[in-house]
Amino acid sequence: MDFNELMQEKGYIYLEKIIEPKENSLRLLINRSTINTDLPMVQLEFESYISYSVIDECFSYSIDNSEISKGELFRIYIKSRYLDFIKITTNEREDLCPSENYIHYQFPCLNHTIDVISCEEPKVTVVTG
User: Fold this and answer.
1) pLDDT band at 84, cuts 50/70/90?
2) Arithmetic mean of pLDDT, 49-55
3) pLDDT of 108-128, one tens digit each?
4) End-to-end alpha-carbon separation of the chain, Å?
5) pLDDT tens digits for 62-76?
6) What band does 11 get if pLDDT is binned at 50, 70 and 90?
7) CA distance 109 to 16
8) Where are the beta strands (DSSP E) in 6-111?
9) Cβ neighbours of residue 85 under 8 Å, at least 6 residues apart?
10) DSSP character for 35?
């Protein structure tokens, strides 16, 4: 399964675990909710990231008309306020990843909303069927 396939999924997901297995890498374990028992549990592994944010879902903002995304449960933003913020507040490293290559991933779970800015697509591993 790859990230494009995950972007086709609909329903509800739940963040089980978030860890940094090594410096500047990120691992998310995302489970199906009790409502969507047909969705698999997946592990998303970012070998590197520029930024990530975890927000209690009660405080997550709604998409406004200026933001552009693809996907429902597993999203990629082409344009977002978070992406603009990261481009403004970080030191661009052309040698590592020019800012035009930043990709904003979002995972709107039932318990948290996770936003990740990375230059690379995460590795997707199905943990359970």
Assistant:
1) very high
2) 95
3) 999 999 999 999 999 999 997
4) 12
5) 667 889 999 988 999
6) confident
7) 10
8) 13-19, 26-32, 41-46, 51-56, 68-70, 75-79, 103-108
9) none
10) S
* Residue tagged 């199906």 (tokens): 32
Token duo for residue 128 = 């359970």
H helix or E strand, kind and range, residue 85: helix 81-89
Nearest residue to 13 (alpha-carbon basis) of 33, 41, 42 = 33
Residue 33 has pLDDT above 90, yes or no: no
Mean pLDDT of the chain: 89
- HSE (side-chain half, CA atoms, 13 Å) at 129: 0
Q: Give me 6's structure tokens.
A: 């995950």
Angstrom distance (rounded) from CA 73 to CA 32:
11
Which amino acid belongs to residue 78?
A: I
Residue pair 67/85 in contact (Cβ under 8 Å)? The answer is no
Torsion of CA 72, 1, 128, 52, to 10 degrees: -50
How many angstroms separate the CA atoms of 82 and 31, rounded? 24
